[in-house]
């Protein structure tokens, strides 16, 4: 950790706060500036003194990201040119996201986008996204599945992402297909969609043929943008000629098993349950957040249990905020991670705060991440015995509910986890540990070495009858460098 600091020419800064961070960030906080240099001519971002500025929405779209989003909605005939379509579009996967301006400008329409980088060259853009306070995951569209369950997103988006969608029998498009809900859209903005030359024409022809065999239909096409729509049911798959490529996935394939699972070039059909409901059965946002998720039945959980869980976490969040209050202002926290998210009720209880939550679900537990997406929230699957796929200093608050107890059970090192949490945490960021007393004692022993400071300790017993001796321990990460070299971001 310490060694990394040696690379900086300028001291780290306390990140600029959301929503100002949508438009500007400190250069010093993003150690590799080559992307800024590369994109300077495209007007995505420019360097200005000690800051990087994202002008005109920070995309290559001539009229800015806001206008571009409205024109997508207009192409789909959504009322008021609002892409959220009355709350029916909420979760979006943005592939090859530039500096995530698409995701940044969707937020005002109550749409939340997970931005992922398409390949090694552009992973650095994920760091820009997180520094700006926009949800992003350092995921690579390569050979492994992205760490999201099937049918998680209502819309996938890619603009000039320079991905070869035709490679390996269309395996990357088939991964998007797995991730889209019934009737989900793929908005693709690229010169090929409005072919100018021979090569573009060839790519367009082959892509059109491929997605047709995948049963996608063109919903709209305009300028350099095409929007395809995925079928609502399996009917079209069944009607294909025998031997049509790509094939359907094997019936024993679990479309929601994602951690370290290799992609395959096959179509993921809908389950019988989805077939029966002819679609997702989702309530429109925002009632979707608190309605019982359609896939709750996959786990055999009752609606009553779900509603109790929602209530319990509402109380816990209130309690957490009281503990944090002396240390935070309204805009202090932006990027939050719930390291063991269960049903996503921690994130749901934060809905009135100007924050977003990365909900992490352990890869060896029940894969409740599909419930989290059903609620209109974002997340990923992870194993905390390993490093999380994000840049250093990208989260303002980490919530670790029984995560350390799990480490112990799995025989992984609690010390390694502490170091990983320190790596992910932004300067002056917070940790809330909710765990057994011996875990809290263990962490306390390491505070000095990590330059962390105890903020508060509370007995958790009072806020729910479910707790068995859990303690709430709030910690703040101090700045590493001498305070006189730091500037306030105000
Ligand atoms: C297409 O171009 C027209 C102007 O020529 C513009 O008004 C519209 O927003 C564009 N649509 C998209 C999807 O970019
Ligand atoms: C939008 O409306 C136009 C004009 O009525 C129609 O031609 C087009 O098919 C509609 N598109 C979609 C995606 O509904």
Explain what you see.
With about 500 residues, the chain is α/β, with parallel strands linked by helices. It has 2 domains: about 20-275, Rossmann fold, CATH 3.40.50.150; about 290-490, Vaccinia Virus protein VP39 (Rossmann fold, 3-Layer(aba) Sandwich). The chain has 16 helices and 17 strands. The chain has helices spanning about 1-5, 35-40, 65-75, 100-105, 125-130, 165-180, 200-215, 235-240, 270-275, 285-290, 305-325, 345-350, 370-375, 405-410, 415-425, 435-450, and strands at about 25, 45-50, 50-55, 90-95, 110-115, 135-140, 155-160, 180-190, 215-220, 225-230, 335-340, 355-360, 380, 395-400, 425-435, 450-460, 470-475. The strands form 3 sheets. A 7-stranded mixed beta sheet has the order 6-5-4-7-8-10-9. Strands 13-12-11-14-15-17-16 form a 7-stranded mixed beta sheet, with helices on both faces. Strand 9 (about 215-220) and strand 10 (about 225-230) form a beta hairpin. The longest helix is centred in the middle third of the chain and has 22 residues, at about 305-325. The chain starts with a helix and ends in a 13-residue tail after the last strand. Residues about 1-10 and about 480-490 have low confidence and may be disordered. The structure holds 2-acetamido-2-deoxy-beta-D-glucopyranose (2 copies). One 2-acetamido-2-deoxy-beta-D-glucopyranose binds near residues 71, 75, 222, 223 and 225.
């Amino acid at each position: 950790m310490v060694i990394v600091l040696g690379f900086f020419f300028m001291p780290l800064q306390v990140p600029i706060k959301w929503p100002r961070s949508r438009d500007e960030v400190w250069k010093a906080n993003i150690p590799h500036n080559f992307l800024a240099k590369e994109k300077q001519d495209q007007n995505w971002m420019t360097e200005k003194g000690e800051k990087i500025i994202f002008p005109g929405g920070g995309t290559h779209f001539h009229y800015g990201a806001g206008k571009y989003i409205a024109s997508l909605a207009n192409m789909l005939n959504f009322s008021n040119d609002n892409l959220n379509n009355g709350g029916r579009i909420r979760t979006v996967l943005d592939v090859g996201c530039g500096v995530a301006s698409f995701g940044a400008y969707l937020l005002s329409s109550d749409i939340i986008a997970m931005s992922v980088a398409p390949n090694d060259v552009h992973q650095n853009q994920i760091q820009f996204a997180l520094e700006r306070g926009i949800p992003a995951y350092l995921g690579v569209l390569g050979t492994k599945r992205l760490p999201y369950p099937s049918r998680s997103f209502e819309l996938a988006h890619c603009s000039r992402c320079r991905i070869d969608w035709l490679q390996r029998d269309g395996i990357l498009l088939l991964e998007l297909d797995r991730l889209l809900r019934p009737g989900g859209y793929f908005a693709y903005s690229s010169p090929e969609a409005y072919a100018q030359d021979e090569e573009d024409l060839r790519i367009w022809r082959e892509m059109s043929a491929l997605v047709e065999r995948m049963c996608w239909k063109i919903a709209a096409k305009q300028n350099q943008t095409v929007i395809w729509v995925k079928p609502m049911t399996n009917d079209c798959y069944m009607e294909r000629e025998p031997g049509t490529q790509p094939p359907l996935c094997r019936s024993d394939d679990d479309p929601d098993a994602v951690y370290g699972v290799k992609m395959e070039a096959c179509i993921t059909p809908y389950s019988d349950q989805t077939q029966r409901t002819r679609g997702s059965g989702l309530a429109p946002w925002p009632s979707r957040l608190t309605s019982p998720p359609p896939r709750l039945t996959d786990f055999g959980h009752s609606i009553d249990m779900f509603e109790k869980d929602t209530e319990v976490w509402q109380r816990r969040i209130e309690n957490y905020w009281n503990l944090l209050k002396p240390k935070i202002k309204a805009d202090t926290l932006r990027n939050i991670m719930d390291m063991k998210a269960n049903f996503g009720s921690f994130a749901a209880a934060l809905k009135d705060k100007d924050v977003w939550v990365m909900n992490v679900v352990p890869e060896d537990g029940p894969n409740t991440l599909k419930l989290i997406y059903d609620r209109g929230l974002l997340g990923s699957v992870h194993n905390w015995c390993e490093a999380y796929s994000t840049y250093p200093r990208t989260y303002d608050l980490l919530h670790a509910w029984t995560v350390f107890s799990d480490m112990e059970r799995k025989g992984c090192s609690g010390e390694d986890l502490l170091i990983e949490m320190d790596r992910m945490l932004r300067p002056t960021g917070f940790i809330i540990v909710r765990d057994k007393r011996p875990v809290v004692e263990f962490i306390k022993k390491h505070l000095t070495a990590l330059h962390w400071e105890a903020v508060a300790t509370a007995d958790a017993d009072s806020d729910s009858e479910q707790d068995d001796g859990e303690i709430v321990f709030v910690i703040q990460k101090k700045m590493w460098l001498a305070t006189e070299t730091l500037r306030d971001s105000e």
